[in-house]
Amino acid sequence: MSKKAAETRTRVLVVEDEESFIDALKVGLGREGFEVSVARDGDEALGLFAPQRFDVILLDLMLPRVSGLDVCRAIRAQSDVPIIIVSAKGEEVDMVLMLELGADDYVTKPYRLRELVARIRAVSRRREARDELDDVDEEIIQRGDLRLDAQARRCYVRGEEIKLRKKEFALLRLLMENPGRVLTREVLIDRVWGHDYVGDTKTLDVHVKRLRGLVEEDPKNPVHITTVRGVGYRFESATNAE
Ligand code: CA
To answer: 85 CA distance to ligand 1 centroid (A)?
Structure first.
């Protein structure tokens, strides 16, 4: 993490209309060192928002007046600030659509504060890393006990080199380049296979399964490559970096 980032508090805009959640987030996130601002509906959120003003947006979907979906779209049109969508349990949410609209991650109510804090840190770290890199492709990517050398096309797990096939390497690289971010099946397939992807939709899962067998200590309980049910996969960074 950069010196500047360590000195500056992460500014979170909480867009939420339920007072009990607002109170809990103000206290909980404040205690974790975040600077919390609150908007109680979509209009207020768009009024408060300005590029550079916030580091992370925590956006409830069910809001009075302007919906979370429209807030997400409007913010994304003017900024690439990380957006975490919050939905209620049982709420009909097209997560694939949300991610296509530019949301970075999502959590479902009721959530644990610890989980939420880890997600906020992950998306803001990713943003910082991207700012520092200034869009130059990383050649060496180190995440926890995984190390990927993009140029030499080599991968190391806890210091040991593992052999990866071309598509496996491309898939792992894409995941590792986007820690903490949900990547939809469509995005993964498009970026790794493109037009080469024919027929069998299980190909992606087969590749993920093989990758887990190689990089996870316990492939049945993956800590690096986790499944986001019905949506895609996510490379976890928060847990092993703390
Ligand atoms: Ca709500």
So the answer is: 11
Q: Averaged over 214-237, what is the pLDDT?
A: 92
Contacts (Cβ under 8 Å, ≥6 apart) of 97: none
Q: Model pTM greater than 0.70? A: no
Residue 133 confidence (pLDDT) above 60: no
Contacts of 209 (CB under 8 A, 6+ apart): 219
Tell me, in angstroms, the distance from the centre of ligand 1 to residue 51's CA: 24
Checking DSSP bridges between strand 11-15 and strand 35-39, what pairing results, if any? parallel
Same fold, 3-132 and 140-239: no
- CATH topology (fold) of 3-132: Rossmann fold (3.40.50)
Please give the pLDDT value at position 134.
47
Q: How many CB atoms lie within 10 A of CB 90?
A: 8
Q: Which residue, chain included where needed, has tokens 């690096």?
A: 224
CATH class of the structural domain 140-239? mainly alpha
Please tell me the distance between residue 130's alpha carbon and the centre of ligand 1 in angstroms. 31
User: What is the whole-number distance in angstroms between the Cα of residue 106 and the centre of ligand 1?
Assistant: 14
Q: Report how far ligand 1's centroid is from the alpha carbon of 201 (Å).
A: 35
Calculate how far, in angstroms, residue 64's C-alpha sits from the geometric centre of ligand 1.
8
- pLDDT score at 5: 45
